[in-house]
Amino acid sequence: MESDYIKVFGGNVTQSDRVEQLLQENDISPIVKSESESARLAGFGTPLPHISEIYVHKDEEAKALKIISQLDWEA
């Protein structure tokens, strides 16, 4: 099954929150997938806690990747 959404970022929750906010500020609607949160809600553990993935519509992929590449992770 082909999806209209592309993964543009994967990282810890702090980084993902920053990326999500920045994308929203640039009129991109990201979808955040958190395996640890899904597992927690289902009553299971996860080997990689606090890891999130961010997806955007394939039409916004280039814009999102450009924004993400300009992030200064030291700030």
TrEMBL record:
InterPro entries: DUF2007. Residues 18-70 form the DUF2007 domain. It comes from the Bacteria. This is DUF2007 domain-containing protein. It comes from Maribacter aurantiacus. The lineage of its organism: Bacteria, Pseudomonadati, Bacteroidota, Flavobacteriia, Flavobacteriales.
